[in-house]
């Protein structure tokens, strides 16, 4: 029963991340959203915004990390879980490690830039001094559909 409760909580947070991805799409950005949670509380959230902000680092995960770090006045975020609608890229994975995030739950895989399992394995690398527990595939079809629809309109 405890596992079912954990999955239900993960689904709830991922649905919030998917809603943020919708905000990104509405702004003309790639539909990716992220929420950083600790002790059942959202500390920070964000969506992709590199085009509108002219900032190549404005990925959803980085935006969520920035907001969370500002909220707790600390760049380290131990004991937190980051929910992202897409597998983090190498830049975001590096920021996740630096922030000491405990866990990452992501939806869709990124076969071009994924840094959890698809292309690189940064978050699980034993060469780094911090290791992140990762789970992929939660609501993956919903996230993948948003991405596919977004790019279909642009091609």
How would you characterize this protein structure?
By secondary structure, the protein is an alpha/beta fold. Helix content is 43%, strand content 19%. It has 5 helices and 5 strands; from the N terminus they run H-E-E-H-H-E-H-E-E-H. Strands 2-1-3-4-5 form a 5-stranded mixed beta sheet. It is globular and about 40 Å long. It starts with a helix and ends with a helix. The mean pLDDT is 96.
Percent of residues in β-strands: 15-25%
> So how many helices?
5
Shape type: globular
SSE-based structural type: alpha/beta
What letter string, H or E per element, gives the SSE order? HEEHHEHEEH
What is the share of helical residues? 40-55%
Largest sheet: 5 strands, mixed
Distance between the termini: 45 Å
Radius of gyration: 14 Å
* Strand line-up in the sheet with most strands: 2-1-3-4-5
Ranges with pLDDT <50 over ≥5 residues?
A: none
Mean pLDDT: 96
Number of strands: 5
Short description:
The chain is 43% helix and 19% strand. The protein has 155 residues and is of the alpha/beta class.
Tags for this model:
alpha/beta, five-stranded mixed sheet, 43% helix, globular
SSE blueprint:
Elements: H1 2-26, E1 33-38, E2 41-47, H2 50-53, H3 60-72, E3 81-86, H4 90-98, E4 103-108, E5 133-136, H5 140-154
Parallel strand pairs: 3-4, 4-5
Antiparallel strand pairs: 1-2, 1-3
Helix pairs in contact: 1-5
